[in-house]
Amino acid sequence: MIEVFKTVHNFYYSRAVVKLNFYSFSTARGNKFKLQKFNCHYNIRKYSFVSRVVNIWNSLPDYTVEADSLNAFRIVLINTGLIKMLFITTNQI
Fold first, then answer.
1. Which of 35, 55, 83, 88 counts the highest number of beta carbons within 10 A?
2. pLDDT tens digits for 66-93?
3. Neighbouring C-beta atoms of residue 56, cutoff 10 Å
């Protein structure tokens, strides 16, 4: 989740990271940085980083995704117990 936060908030050089597609309409429920899901027909793409992270990222609350800094994002994840949810979700894959 930290890598997605860095990518969404432009901590990396834009040409060196995975391209994440955002929803283009503003009526999407959830956070304003909601990522777009894509259909996977091959296992190599189905189990890729982007495919595994989209559902988890879209389920995060708005105040978590819009944190001011990376440390604030980490603190919100830890204090709200969302970090436990992330470990449970990723271990089920």
1. 35
2. 888 989 998 888 887 777 666 655 555 4
3. 16
